[in-house]
Design brief:
By secondary structure, the chain is α/β, with parallel strands linked by helices. It is built from 4 helices and 8 strands. The chain has helices at about 20-30, 90-105, 145-160, 165-180; strands at about 15, 35-40, 45-55, 60-65, 85-90, 115, 120-125, 130-135. A 4-stranded mixed sheet has the order 1-4-3-2. It has a 4-stranded mixed sheet with strand order 5-8-7-6, with helices on one face. This is Glyoxalase.
Length: about 180
């Protein structure tokens, strides 16, 4: 019997466990600019509130809240099966300003880290969740996706026996994908 995968089309939403409502609204809307678009009871546990935030691309991030919950006082455990971090796509202009803007709101960060094909900046939300702001350092050629560019850049990296994708690999992939 042939096994056919269940084909996904992208992330629909991500749901996090938050503390009280205001802590979530202050962070996701106030710090990261994700508008609270609606809220309702958690339909599986009506005593829990369910907040829906717009991530900027029409998808949502949702947070379960209860007024008696408080943010944890210690770092979240990194055990198998747990979420390591969540990454949000931002522009190059935004990532260049993010460290100072986060600092002004009381959030420390890693500073910008060059990942070859993208820049990353990490910080923690009030619950201790590691949040990444990620910005591609390229735009794909017309008719191609970021995934197309990265797939070819990976092949170029393997050809040169490199440890990771570097900026030159991306530039070469862009050139090859742009050939007419």
């Amino acid at each position: 019997m042939t096994h056919v995968p269940v084909q996904v089309q992208g992330i629909h939403h991500i749901t996090l466990n938050g503390a009280d409502r205001q802590t979530s609204v202050d962070f996701w809307e106030g710090v990261l600019g994700m508008p609270l678009i609606f809220e309702q009871p958690n339909l599986d546990a009506p005593e829990i509130n369910h907040l829906y935030f717009d991530t900027g691309d029409g998808r949502t991030l949702t947070v379960f809240t209860e007024e008696g919950r408080q943010p944890p006082s210690q770092k979240l455990a990194q055990q198998p099966g747990s979420l390591h971090h969540i990454a949000f796509w931002v522009s190059q202009a935004t990532i260049r300003l993010a460290e100072d803007r986060l600092k002004a709101q009381g959030y420390g960060s890693s500073g910008i880290k060059d990942r070859g094909f993208m820049d990353s900046l990490y910080f923690r939300d009030p619950m201790g969740l590691l949040v990444e702001l990620a910005s591609y350092k390229f735009d794909p050629p017309q008719g191609k996706t970021h995934g197309d560019v990265l797939n070819l850049a990976h092949k170029i990296r393997l050809e040169r026996d490199g440890l990771a994708i570097e900026t030159a690999d991306v530039a070469d992939a862009l050139a090859r994908l742009s050939e007419r």
